[in-house]
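Researcher: Go.
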Amino acid sequence: MAKVQVWVYRRTRGRLGGTWRIAAGFRKPAPVLLLEHRGRKSGRLYTTPLLYMADGPDTVVVASQGGLPKNPQWYLNLRSHPDTHIQIRAERRPVRARTADPQERSRLWPLLLEVYADFELYQSWAEREIPVVVLQPRADE
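Model: Structure:
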């Protein structure tokens, strides 16, 4: 399903697929971006749709994977290759990814729950602390 969402998002410049309207998103739609990430083993380029929020000039995403036990592949890939791109609507932006430190995560987590309340449910299911990822703007190469 993610491949279809990426295709539609790109073709419509985020007009379709640019909001998540499932589960908690049904009551309060959450914004969606496209995250590019390079496979840490394969070197292949992937694109994943993710919910996000803005935090000043930064963009913040959550490596929840629906509360599954392991971190998502895109998160592991970003740890190996942090320089990447995101697309928000029609705009493609160069970013550098980093995991929020504990103090920053504690500030961002309640704000993320305002964007998508089910992150709290996912955290209750996971035996891991769900990483919060800060995507900082960078000058394009």
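Model: Residues 102-115 form the longest helix (14 residues).
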